[in-house]
Amino acid sequence: MYTYRINEIFYSIQGEGAFAGTPAVFVRFSGCNLRCPWCDTDHERGEEMTRDELEDAVGDLMKGHEGAIVVLTGGEPALQLREDEPLFRCFNTLVCIETNGTRPVPGWVEWITVSPKNALPLRDIVPTPNELKFVFEPEHIPYYLSMQDADCEKRIQPLARRDGTTNLREALEFVLAHPRFKLSVQLHKLIGVR
Ligand code: SF4
Predict the structure, then answer these.
(1) pLDDT tens digits for range 11-23
(2) Could you tell me if the CB of 75 is within 6 A of ligand 1?
(3) What CATH code is carried by the domain that includes residue 148?
(4) Is 152 a residue of the active site?
(5) Beta carbon of 32 within 6 Å of any ligand 1 atom
(6) Selected catalytic residue, list 3, 41, 128, 165
(7) Cβ proximity of 29 and 79 under 8 Å
(8) pLDDT by residue (tens digit) across 46-105?
(9) 98 catalytic per annotation
(10) Number of domains in the chain
(11) CA 35 / ligand 1 centre spacing (Å)
(12) Is 73 a catalytic site residue?
């Protein structure tokens, strides 16, 4: 039986992107195919779960929280998702994914946020994201600008360094100079929740 390797499942608010401020059940899939130097997500540990176990665990958190969305995150969730096994349809709510864009996303996922890393080309992989979210690195500005006419929402998120500093000021200046982009801050960190 196919199993998913799950790092954690928790209820909080979405802190980033188009659904910032929205209550959500997060399903963090274990493992990633990239090694971003600033990655601050502890996603390596994982528990094997069947689809039923996964949906039961999410269902427990959904009880009393009708209207919450489901966010598939990681790690890289698209490494484990299957086109022929839709997840979380039973909750009749929006199922979103946060992906690095290096793997195809099944068609049953309803909202795709691609956060490309290392200026990876998106063509042919996730051709129709709903949202692009770039962690701001000034050396990649030409790459961001090459995407500015993409038919989706485009967000610039300051880089959070391990020493606690960010490049918020530079990210803000970029957005003000290029209004097709929006500034995305990590709301959950600002208010001190997961
Ligand atoms: S793609 Fe995301 S989860 Fe994977 S290493 Fe980079 S920041 Fe971490």
Answers:
(1) 999 999 999 999 9
(2) yes
(3) 3.20.20.70
(4) no
(5) yes
(6) 41
(7) yes
(8) 999 999 999 999 999 999 999 999 999 999 999 999 999 999 999 999 999 999 999 999
(9) yes
(10) 1
(11) 6
(12) no
